[in-house]
Structure formats: structure tokens, C-alpha cells
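Hello Y.,

Per our agreement to keep a running log of every chain we model this quarter, I'm adding this entry. I've kept the format consistent with earlier entries: sequence first, then predicted structure.
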Amino acid sequence: MGRPRKNPDDAKLPKRVSRGRSAFEYKHKNGETKRLCPLSASYAEVWAAYEEYMKEIEGNTHGDTFEKLINQFFESADFNALSKHTRTDYAKYATRVKKPFGKMPPDDIKPPHIRKYMDIRGAKSQVQANREKAFLSRVFRWGYERGLVAINPCQGVRQFSEKPRERYITDEEYNALYQAADILVKVAMEISYLCCARQGDVLSLRREQIMNEGIFICQGKTGVKQIKSWSPRLPAVVKLASTLPVRAGIVSTFVLYQPDGGRYTASGLSNRWRAAKALAKKDNPDLNFDLTFHDLKAKGISDLSGSLQEKQAISGHKNIGQTARYDRKFKVVPTVDGQNTKSN
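Predicted structure for the entry above:
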């Protein structure tokens, strides 16, 4: 049974329909919303718009479209089994690809169409073109396996070559940025670096994950579960996090929390991260702060001692190739005359 409506009169609304800022909206399970009609519409008009949209989704009026196939995929068990991070990314990619392909019958989409989309999108961002093509392929593959489409037109269409990021944050750059950062960014930096954690895993960290043995982290992308054991710096990070400002009477369940106790969003942290970089650059004009937050995890893995296999075990990567891409610190090797050689 669904949750009670805030406005009792809204119990008259169809399932998954609610009031948005300026319109009645239908909310899909993946979080995507569809505007149905303005808030000035009567309940009868809302129901009429809802039924029309349901027919469109089901293909009863306009026939099968690629937008319908995407919506079916988003309602599927396969989609709901994906990580929250992946589902969020797919929702963004769907918005992009619906513009050129949404109203087309899926079987009318051919490899040349995919290639043309890749070339146009790649002129702005080749990485995003690759991600959106991978999403297209995932939807077509799902539809093909269920007899909804005849082919997967993405097969055989070449992706753009991606050069792995090689940026390594030096200790001098890290310390300068840390000094310029506010408490929120300081804590996020240290947890990401010390625990080799992604931004999403840092932001979702809850107090219940602070354990006697260390900090429990379940990676949102890979699902790998680990306890990051206490180290000399880690307890100080948790203590610093407890000094974040919060409104009187509020106790947050998150380690990184807003004044109202809620978790920080990625965009909220990104804004503070950019501000810290700008201030660090002002105070240290000779240093380079062309950094991403994700570079902190790479620095952590690069600064670990041991073999790639040992670093993989700590990082939580599922294969050693992933760990190798994160290991960005230049190796110090001997010169020819610097090697210890035995004379004959």
C-alpha cells in the first residue's frame, strides 16, 4: 500500500502521479518524471492526460517507439537490479538519446544512425558519446532478448578511444588544497584518499558504518564490502566530521551532513570542492589544481605500497586492470650505471 498523500484531495490522483512545481507529473520507478498537465487542470483532466500517457507507453496509440522500449527497460527487474549509481546515469543518458531516437520505431534505428549520433555527440564529448552508446546497446540487447526488437544496431559501431587519466596529485598539491578547504571538503578528501573511496561512497557514509575495527564501506559501483581499518589519520577525520554545523536538536545519521541533517548531494560537494581549488590556487599560484575529486582515490591507490595484487585487494577492484589504471605514481627505477652488477 502506498504512502498517504500530503494533500487528502490528491488521493483522487492516479497511481505515481503527484503535484510538481508547475504541473501534475507522472514519476517512473527510475525517478524520471513526465509532465502531464498544468496544476490548474481538474482531476478529470489529469486522469485523461494520465490515460493518454499510459497508452503511449503501451504503444496503443502511436505504435512502438524507442522511448517506449526505454520505459519498459526502466520498469524491468534487470534495471532495478543495477546499482543506484548506474540507474542514475542511465536516466541522464536516456534524456539525451530520446531527443533523436525517442519517437522512432526501434527497428528503424540502424548502425549508420548510431554512428551519426556518435560523431555529432563526440564533437563535444567523446567520453559521453561512448557512455550513451553503451546505454543504447544495453536497452537494445534487453529488447532483443525479449523479442521486442529484431537487432541491436549498436553492434559493430566503433566507440571512441579513451585515454586513461594519468593525473597524480602530489603531496604538496594535496596539502595546499586541504589547507584551503572547509571542514566538509577536508573530511571528504581524507576519507576518499585514506580509504580509496569513490565520492558516492563517501557521501552515503552513515554513522552506523563507524565500527570498532574501522569504517565499513560497501562500494556502490562494484558491491565489494570492506572494513577500512583504523590508521593514524582516520580517527581524526571522524572527529572532525562531528564538528560540521547542524541545527539545534538535529542528530544526523550521516557522517557528512547538511545543517538540516540530510546527506550532501554530489553537486553540493562539487561546489565546495571548486571553491577550495580556487582558494588554493590563489594562495599557491605556482601549483596546478587541475584536479577532479576522483583523482583522490587514484592518489590513495598510487601511494599504497606493495604489488598490484596487494593494491587490488585493498582498493576493492574486481580485476587487476582497474587497479593498474588507478596506479598513477611514477616508479623510480635505477639507471644503467646505478645498478649493482657483479664484475666478472
